[in-house]
Amino acid sequence: MIVGDSTAFLNPARLKGIHLAMKSGMLAADTIFESLKKGDSTDKSLSEYDRKWRSSYIYNELYSQRNFHYMFENGPLSAPGFVLKHLFTGFTAMPKMHEDHLNMRKLKVHFAGTPPTPDQWRPKPDGKLIFNKLDSVYYSGTNHDEDQPSHLKVSDTNICATICVEEYGNPCR
Question: Rounded distance, CA 99 to CA 173, Å?
């Protein structure tokens, strides 16, 4: 069960969220207490929390502000009209979004059944639009010690050499 600030219960228009985090914590505590009293800590019992927060003022407040950041997509000067309309009517045009994950395929599907080499699908760095890994790390402003241990722990490095190459084209390289 994730509650409070961990669930991003923040009203973006007001930059306020402590009251939402506290209320979600109270609803979670009620749900957990009721589950313990019944001796039932299954997903079904604890999913009552979802119903509780959706029927509380948390949901109403967040739902009315759900598209606030979208108004600033084209910069701060494009926002005043949207902000006034949003604050007084609660209405905002929905952003134009699409589900990218529906179009995801393994690389061999795109390359007629034979897994491609990274040279076939990875564009060459030109230093203007596409950069090599070293330049990309430099421009990102990432700071770390050269001898800093990796935060990634690969239990079987053979996976990188076989499955990852064949199915995904080693995106980690």
Answer: 26
Structural domain spans, the chain:
4-66, 100-143+153-168
SS3 content of the chain, % helix, strand, coil (to 5): 55, 0, 45
Per the structure block, which two tokens stand in for 160? 């990188």
Closest listed residue to residue 68, CA positions, set 79, 53, 57: 79
Question: 11 versus 85: which is more confidently predicted?
Answer: 11
pTM of structure: 0.45
3-state SS string for 103-165:
HCCCHHHHCCCCCCCHHHHCCCCCCCCCCCHHHHHHHHCCCCCCCCCCCCCCCCCHHHHCHHH
* Model confidence pLDDT, tens digit, residues 43-59: 888 999 999 999 998 88
Angle, to 10 degrees, between the axis of helix 18-38 and the axis of helix 57-64?
Answer: 140
Q: How far apart are the first and last CA of the chain?
A: 36
Structure tokens belonging to residue 113: 């059944």
